[in-house]
Amino acid sequence: MLRGLPEQWITATEGPGTWSPYVVIGHLIHGEKTDWVPRLMIILDHGPDHPFEPFDRKAQFRDSQGKSMSELLDEFSQRRADNLERLRTFDLQPAQLELTGTHPALGRVTLRQLLATWTASDLGHILQVSRVMAKRYKDDVGPWAQYLSVMR
Amino acid sequence: MLRGLPEQWITATEGPGTWSPYVVIGHLIHGEKTDWVPRLMIILDHGPDHPFEPFDRKAQFRDSQGKSMSELLDEFSQRRADNLERLRTFDLQPAQLELTGTHPALGRVTLRQLLATWTASDLGHILQVSRVMAKRYKDDVGPWAQYLSVMR
User: Using CB atoms, which residue from B103, B121, B144 is nearest to A117?
Assistant: First the structure.
């Protein structure tokens, strides 16, 4: 969806302090590195006594520096594939989905909730990127804007 | 994004009267058949004196009957490819983008606005499908729901 798009698309935002598609992909990479599978392993290895590391929501502003969108997409794609392979290797059984961990802010969470959040987070970011890119067309669509709920 | 998903994903809605991903794809097919390129040709061939046909927002409930999601995705993909090929064949020049047509409800619109709406509509439907699927996870994500704006 984002591969090969012109610069104006991937750097578009919804205003100051909001994230462009480029920033979102950096955020997703940081999630692959520090969030989903690393937290899953903390649950499996330590359970609730070992709280997760807090997630750095600004890491991508540092880590993406100097990288092209194409490089970020390659990195995300590779890290995601590796993590899904690791997930398959764990061969999680139903009882393990109820194992718990401790989120630094949210408290007790289950492995099942962690995996559901991984998926829901993906969908939320697809939604976000679509919204950011659609809004660029707010003026361009003329009178059709009133039929497009995304423009409101 | 939607290929090969289990039935529960593609038939999920946001409540009575809202559209599932399956319904959205049927709607997109109807757009390829009757909206974007046909309206573009009305502008090129007749200009504003020949209003567009009103778009049938319920056509997919009739036309998708008996078809699997996989069949709908194949049909959409083929029709879209054909329409993009036709669009290239027109070899539209900048001046032609300012040609006008008459929308049955919105009145005077330009060819440029029609093309922008085609793209914005795609992005709006990607957003919609992501939101519908993410909301299925509202309970499953447990306390993480408060971090996921899509759940609100």
Answer: B144
